[in-house]
Design goal:
Elements lengths: L9 E4 L55 E4 L31 E7 L3 E13 L2 E12 L11 E13 L3 E15 L5 H4 L10 E15 L6 E14 L4 E14 L4 E16 L2 E17 L3 E14 L4 E17 L2 E12 L3 H7 L12 E16 L2 E20 L7 E23 L3 E13 L12 E11 L3 E11 L2 E4 L4 E4 L3 E11 L4 E8 L7 E3 L2 E2 L4 E9 L1
Length: about 550
């Protein structure tokens, strides 16, 4: 199992995804009247020193520049366990007297009839042009239950081109993803029936995306900018599809040494088709803010104006939310912050599938309205390699989204929405330790309290989510990563029988090792779910027990 956690940055996030479901509507539907619209190795070119990415509460000293922390507003996404082992790339670090090889081929195999094939090629012959391509396939022909009926495979192809001029960087990305899996959360009695057809439980997601971006690379420019646009097309095996075109702009202007004007703007044009359902859903956002910086504190204030439209639901509404953030630095490398904001968060078919891939057809799509989020916390460097973050957030949502087994087919999931006002309290903490270029350890925990209006429970959402990640490098030849995941308080309900379940706590430990046998050859092994717990992230879906993957890689 692999989760996208960074060991090299202290990234922390605490908010919830929500949408709406009134009581009178059928399961999975929304009453219109209730909708109140309120890695592959990369060739890195020199990054821009962005004004809008800085935390300039203090003039950065050499010690302060070691701090990399950021609180983001994100979805409560604890996705289904992945079979990706996340083995480190084989040649990211070489001995001082050996050349660095940018290209590699990797092959591996493991239990559950698993196979891994991966390749990366980068071309950087010109000083200002870089091209790279990668392909990756990981599959398990046998799953945790009922043999091949719970198999899965993931295939990914990426092509990237980067052009660096004196004043800007231009980047284009083309990608393709194929995810094949099965709806295997059925009972053994159902599988024994003569009418059972394994072909009907198969699902396949095909995603094609193209992105184009341009950004400033001159840090001394008074105006800083980044503009990106991209088109994503998603199709599944049952003829459901979604086309999403998104454009994002970030810009900043230095008015004086202490005052900056910033603007963030987003435009999304989306169409989802699924049988007789066609959704045309758009969202436009503009967020102008001003930031005042002094050696003692930083104040950011502005407005977040968002417009959402939904042709099928008859929605066309614009809302404005205040944005205020105060960051005080009473001591070197210690920050105390507080603020208030709000937003309308997009829920698309693609984003919901990223949380729970076993969705039923024709799920209802509705955006999340975060009408208010009041937060406060502290972050900083404690010295001796230790750093910390802590945050408390009280957020009010209209349309809180959850995932629960559908009716009558409990192998698939609806997105259920709370039609009232939901209050979510989040307490988060993180402690990290880093020993220069050798050892890193990060302990993080999130505690959620859901105050729902109409739903019986926050189906599929954890009350506690904790992770402990570690990485160790020995003599630039041995790379070891070990991590532990814990999730607790997840509930789901079988509405066919009326039985509610609190799923058993999830404990998942993983160990990954890369060892360089020479300048170009490396061996790797990954042990996942070491406790061998066939836990359920969602009701009726057991995960693989102890699984391993091992192989070799060749760099050139």
């Amino acid at each position: 199992m692999q989760y996208p956690l960074s060991l090299l940055t202290l990234l922390f996030a605490t908010t919830a995804v929500v949408a709406q479901q009134p009581k009178p509507a059928k399961v999975g539907e929304i009453d219109n009247q209730e909708i109140t619209v309120e890695k592959s190795r990369k060739i890195e070119l020199p990054p821009a020193n962005r004004i809008f990415n800085k935390i300039p509460s203090l003039k950065p000293s050499a010690e302060q520049r070691k701090l990399t922390y950021e609180f983001e507003d994100r979805k409560l996404t604890i996705g289904d366990p992945k079979i990706t082992p996340g083995v480190l790339a084989p040649a990211t670090t070489q001995a001082d007297n050996t050349p660095a090889y940018n290209n590699y081929i990797k092959l591996g195999a493991g239990n559950y009839s698993s196979f891994l094939g991966e390749a990366f090629v980068g071309i950087n012959t010109l000083s200002n042009l870089a091209l790279e391509g990668s392909v990756r396939h990981l599959s398990s022909a046998i799953g945790p239950v009922d043999g091949k009926n719970s198999s899965q495979s993931d295939t990914r192809v990426r092509v990237t081109g980067k052009y660096l001029a004196d004043a800007f960087k231009l980047q284009a990305d083309l990608g393709y993803d194929r995810n094949a899996y099965n709806f295997y959360g059925y009972s053994r009695e159902y599988a024994a029936q003569p009418s059972f057809n394994p072909d009907l439980i198969k699902q396949q997601l095909n995603t094609v995306n193209f992105k184009l971006g341009i950004e400033n690379v001159k840090s001394e420019n008074a105006i800083d900018y980044s503009l990106k646009t991209g088109l994503t097309s998603l199709k599944d095996r049952f003829n459901a599809s979604e086309t999403d075109w998104g454009t994002n702009l970030n810009a900043s202007l230095g008015i004086s040494d202490n005052v900056f004007a910033l603007v963030a703007a987003d435009a999304y044009v989306t169409q989802r088709s699924d049988g007789s359902i066609v959704d045309n859903r758009n969202l436009f956002r503009v967020k102008p803010t001003f930031k005042y910086v002094s050696p003692l504190f930083t104040i950011t204030a502005g407005i977040n104006a968002v417009n959402q439209t939904d042709q099928r639901q008859g929605i066309n509404d614009t809302r404005a939310f205040p944005v205020v953030d105060i960051d005080v630095a009473p001591l070197d490398n210690i920050h105390i912050f507080a603020g208030v904001d709000g937003d309308i968060n997009r829920n698309t078919l693609r984003s919901l599938l990223a949380e729970n891939k076993w969705l039923a057809s024709q799920v209802v799509l509705a955006n999340t309205i975060k009408s208010l989020d009041i937060y406060a916390g502290s972050k900083g460097n404690l010295g001796g390699g230790f750093s910390y973050e802590g945050k408390a957030s009280y957020a009010r949502y209209r349309n809180f989204s959850t995932f629960n087994n559908s009716i009558p087919d409990t192998t698939k999931f609806f997105v259920l929405y709370d039609g009232g006002i939901s209050n979510v309290l989040t307490i988060s903490g993180q402690l990290a330790y880093a020993q220069k270029d050798k050892f890193r350890s990060t302990l993080k925990a999130d505690f959620f309290n859901y105050g729902l209006d109409r739903l019986e429970a926050a189906w599929g959402r954890p009350r506690t989510a904790a992770t402990w990640t570690n990485s160790y490098i020995l003599n630039k030849k041995l790379f070891v990563t070990a991590d532990l995941y814990f999730y607790e308080g997840i509930q789901n309900k079988n509405f066919t029988t009326g039985t509610a379940y609190t799923l058993k706590p999830i404990y998942d430990a993983n160990l990954k090792i890369d060892y360089f046998l020479g300048s170009q050859i490396a061996a790797f092994v990954s042990l996942n779910n070491i406790f061998g717990q066939n836990y359920q992230r969602y009701l009726y879906y057991q995960t693989q027990g102890l699984n391993f993957l091992g192989g070799i890689s060749y760099s050139f």
